Every structure is written in C-alpha cells, then in structure tokens.
Amino acid sequence: MKSQNKPTIYWSLLRHKDWNIYLAATDSGLCYVGSQDQPLDELTEWTAKHFPDSHLEEDEQKLKPYQEELVEYLEGERTSFTLPFDYHGTEFQQNVWQALCNIPYGETVSYSDIAHAINKPAAVRAVGAAIGANPVLITVPCHRVVGKNGSLTGYRGGLQMKSRLLDLESNRSIVKQ
After folding, report:
1. Sequence-separated contacts (24+) of 101-105 with Cβ below 8 Å
2. Catalytic pick from 43, 136, 142, 166?
3. pLDDT digits over 92-134, tens only?
C-alpha cells in the first residue's frame, strides 16, 4: 500500500513541434512541467527533492489530458488550464502561485505587482523566490512576470523559453477557450 506522502509520479515527454517538455502528475493532478529541451534528469532531480522515495513511472495515457491542454495553449487555442494541480509549497508560495493564475493571458506584471496582490508589498524578493519555485511552468504562468522596467528576468525554464511564451501570447488570436 502506498504512503500518502509517497505517491506515484507519472510522467511523459510532451513533443509538439519544436517543444519538448517533461510533464508529471500524481493521481491528484499535474505536479510538474519542465523546462524546454531539458533531459529527464531535471524531472528526476526535482522529484527526489520534492517527493522523496516516490516511484516515477512513465505513463503516456495518464498524462494525455495535460498534454492536450498544453498543446492547445501552444497552438494559441487556450488561455487558461482547467485540469487539476497537485503542487505543494508554503502558504506564501501558494498565495503567490494563485496570484500568478490571475494574470490575464497576454499581459505581464512586475514582481512588486504580485507582492501587492498578495498584500505583502515589502516581500518582492520573497515573491521572486516563490515564483522561481513554481513547479508547473506555463500552466501557472510565472512567465508573465517581468522586471519593474519591463525587462525579462529570471525564469526556471530559461529566458529563451520565457520570451517564446510571451511572444506566443502576444502574437496569437484566441480561437477558443
């Protein structure tokens, strides 16, 4: 019998056009979206840190609903995600991640805007750290946070991936939700 703290982590590689991203989910929801073109090691190291002793199991079928929504997003046909998440963090991190989900598609905000949104205006650096800990790239849209002067700043997936996502959102007309 599996321990509640040690769920099976199901994973697959999303391959769509020139996007190659590892995804992982538990039975409760999406728990990880990796960086573009990174090896499986990125996922295994993340899992070892956040779900120690959990079993990693490749399962394309379990990840198919998540892949479908991500492909719709990458095709400009989706602006938000409806599938469940299973991400874990401190209460502060959870508040930051929820605030990220409130950033409208195609728009950007600053780190201080997020700090104000969670009623912690002095916590800009902590907000940056929480954003950097976001385990589900793209789906919790941390790529929509930029420097106060509009410059691209740190992103777990790399600035090239962040730039591509922002370009995708600014250049697409949404067909359906």
Report:
1. 101/140, 101/141, 103/141, 103/144, 103/145, 105/79, 105/80, 105/141, 105/169, 105/174
2. 142
3. 999 999 999 999 999 999 999 999 999 999 999 999 999 999 9
